[in-house]
Amino acid sequence: MDNPCFALRSAMLAPLFFLLLTARSGATGKEFNQKPNFVLIIADDLGIGDVGCYGNDTIRTPNVDRLASEGVKLTQHIAAAPLCTPSRTAFMTGRYAIRSGMVSTGRVQVLLFLGGSGGLHPTETTFAKRLQQQGYTTGLVGKWHLGVNCKHRGDHCHHPNQHGFSYFYGLPFTLFNDCLPGEGSDVLVDLQQTLQNLTMLLGVGFITIVCVHVCGLFNISLWLLVLLFLLCILATAVWYVPFHFLSTWNCIIMRNQEVIEQPMTLETLPQRLLGEAQNFIKRNVDRPFLLVFSLAHVHTPMFKTPQFAGKSRHGAYGDNVEEMDWMIGKITETVDSLGIANNTLMYFTSDHGGHLEDGNLKTGQKGGWNGIYKGGKAMGGWEGGIRVPGIFRWPSRLTAGKVVDEPTSLMDLYPTLKYLAKDTQPDRQSDGYNLMPLLEGKVARSEHDFMFHYCGTYLNAVRWHPPGSDSVFKVHFFTPNFFPPGAGGCYDIKVCLCHGEYVTYHNPPLLYDLFHDPAESHPLTPDTEPRYAEILEQTAKAVERHKSTLTNKRASADAHTEASTAGQSIEIQLAWDKILWRPWLQPCCGTFPFCGCKETYEKKLEQTASVY
After folding, report:
1. Residue 404: is its pLDDT beyond 50?
2. Which of 77, 84, 251, 498 does the annotation list as catalytic?
3. Which of these is catalytic: 121, 145, 297, 314?
4. Helical spans, DSSP H, in 413-500
5. Where are the domains of the chain?
6. Which tens digits make up the pLDDT trace of 107-131?
7. Can you give the pTM of this predicted structure?
8. Is the dihedral angle over the CA atoms 427, 565, 451, 36 positive or is it negative?
9. Is 145 a catalytic residue?
10. Catalytic residue flag (residue 156)
11. How far apart are CA 522 and CA 532, in angstroms?
């Protein structure tokens, strides 16, 4: 017979036992049942060697270091491309950018004009779109750089709002030197100079012919004079308008689909982005949310916030890294102060490695530091351009101070977020893997046996992590030629290119073991590596399997390549006819072409003079 006193005592103790369990885990009952929140922070052009927990001892990054000490640090976290547009595409979609057509066959490998028609195709799927379907409130604060319009101003086919972000505030484009008066231009500078010279030549020619005609030396047809005059006007329009007004056309701030500042004021941009990110978290504290905080730091031009200017040991670049770290600290503080840390996965990374060539004495910018790794931004498959910080913090679920040395990818965020949001709906081809088993220590090995490294549309390199081995072999099919020869980058042309005279093909390919030679300084040979032939054979087979998943192969450089997404074919989005400026696509506040507006806001940046 059941004892009624025992049953009553058990019924009374059960709730107390549950409360003790939840208190032990640091989670409230509400957090225990709620879907997790996600705060994803992505820096721009930050080198892996710029951060203290990855080896830097001269730039102060206590807040990033704290995330690492309280969470999991990845040491082989890899971007899918060494440039922002294709890398961010892969990050958002969990797929190599070639599948979305966000790659290039020529010299221009990123979107250059906000008034172009290229961008992330409307049929693509981002992790934000998947989470939105699972009931998440989704927000993007900061940089987008994946396009805006397709066919006319205001169609917003590439806009964040069309790709799963219910709220957007920030830069639909990116930072360029053109955004800061006095910094010059870094958009097709050689083309600008050619068009300017052509315009001047036509102008001089027209004036000379008019003088000859007026003086009666030759009888010149009126139609010829009209034609030359129109050519002068056309050349001026092609050169002067899109390039002279770059700060107006490209450097804008949008809130959702409205342009609220044009051109933007850089001096106050950091505090505005930080304030928007903090407010998004506070507004959504009672429901599951995703925030992507896409920092403008540390892309050029450098910010000159008074509280940080001149405070680091590495000029303006170091100042900006330390300001970036402070902003990350404020976001972490916001999450913690609201009591949601135990139900919030925080993540920090960079879109690719540091830009070594982008340096000048005037600003003190020396480019990012990529530690021991060779190369940097826009240098193909060299490790310095694709190995990035990767830090996850989730106090109630991830062991503090854990280090994972297995290969992982920015593309892994897509399946990881899907898994944590309990999204089990069918999906399209993915190139990432759920990281939770690795982060939680349930498995010791990454699912990334092979990883493919693209330079534009060209397969540049492949890495292989053989089963049962610590080695990670990387095969380079071609490498960028440095300019000037013997330098450590492409200083003459600012970024390395992926084709023609700009690269050297290797037959047989260059082969390195990253486990023993992470700096890629000692190529392996059949004499030094017993598995040499096997490595090349296995890599070749993997390449063929990978290519079979791409429904359309790369075409010639003067044709439109197509890539597959969701079972459809998509044009290459970085072809010349898609990236060049079109007046009818240009986002504008006011009446085009008289665009101009300023955001009204309260200054919210706290005094930080004594922050360190």
Report:
1. yes
2. 84
3. 145
4. 413-420, 436-439
5. 32-185+250-448+561-595, 189-242
6. 888 898 899 999 999 999 999 999 9
7. 0.86
8. negative
9. yes
10. no
11. 14
